[in-house]
Amino acid sequence: MAARFEELAWRATPLGELSLRRRYDPLVRKDVYEIKLDDDFLMSSLFTAAEIALARLALAEPAGKEGLRVLVGGLGLGYTAQAVLDSPDVAELVVVDALAEVIDWHREGLIPSGAALVADSRCRLAHGDFFALVGGGSAAGPQVGAEPFDAVIVDIDHSPRHLLHPGHADLYTAAGLRRLSERLLVPGGVFALWSNDAPDGEFTSLLAEVFPEVRAEVVRFPNPLQGREAANTVYLATS
Question: Is it the case that residue 190 has pLDDT exceeding 60?
Fold first, then answer.
């Protein structure tokens, strides 16, 4: 009989203690994979609806355009990246993560989606600080190529107000968003951002200072642990 709980990997990182664990959840009757940083849950396979919707909503903006080049900030358990690759319109995907350990776990097959991501010739996993790409990171930026992207999809912080690291704050300013648009997006390209919080009117207004088309989509999904509906937000901004 498989263990009800197993820590698959653990590493000390500059950001804290990072762990990957698998547990059997009798409520949903399946294995649940979780990544934790110290006591903070970064990702759980129990809740993936919003991460998948993040990619699908972003790619719906340039619908019908082929040969899309996409950048994802934040690998996690790979659900957003896999949803990007589900689109036949995507020709290239670069996934950036600041935690080399998470990339290693995908390559080693410890995370279920890892094998598919590594095997897909369109996908490249890049270690580095996503925020350095827009001038607000604390380290050198990863190599993502010189060409801009049709979509930049970010799932790293809990929300624009609740950050994993203070060094991320610059992105959520008008200057940071403008640099992202100018440096990383093609004209008409899409910036998509996941948030655990309800739509933030102030942040939507900030996006509107930089992008001509902006909206916030609420993604609802069942929370079996609490027996109620939960919701996340996806911000979409077109340059």
Answer: yes
In a domain, 42, yes or no: no
Helix or strand holding residue 141 (H, E) = none
Q: Which domain holds residue 228?
A: 48-238
Q: What pTM was computed for the model?
A: 0.92
Cα angle value 117/84/34 (rounded, 5°): 60
d(CA 234, CA 207): 13
What is the dihedral angle through the alpha carbons of 117, 84, 51, 8, rounded to the nearest 10 degrees? 0
Q: What's the mean pLDDT when you consider all of the chain? A: 92
Q: For residue 73, give the CATH number of its domain.
A: 3.40.50.150
Q: Is the pLDDT of residue 1 over 80?
A: no
In a domain, residue 149? The reply is: yes
Alpha carbon distance 32, 213 (integer Å): 37
What's the structural domain count of the chain? 1
Whether residue 14 contacts residue 186, with contact meaning beta carbons closer than 8 Å, is answered with: no
Please check the confidence at residue 154 and state whether its pLDDT lies above 60.
Answer: yes
- The strand order across the sheet containing 30-37 reads 5-13, 16-25, 30-37, 40-44
CA–CA separation, 113 and 37 (whole Å): 20
User: pLDDT, tens digit, for every residue of 39-88?
Assistant: 888 889 988 999 999 999 999 987 678 999 999 999 999 999 999 999 99
Asked if residue 17 belongs to a domain, the reply is no
Position 140 scores a pLDDT of 63
Decide if 15 is inside a domain: no
* Ramachandran assignment for 234, one of left (phi > 0), alpha (psi -120 to 50 degrees), beta (any other): beta
Residue 132: name the closest of 124, 145, 143 by CA.
143
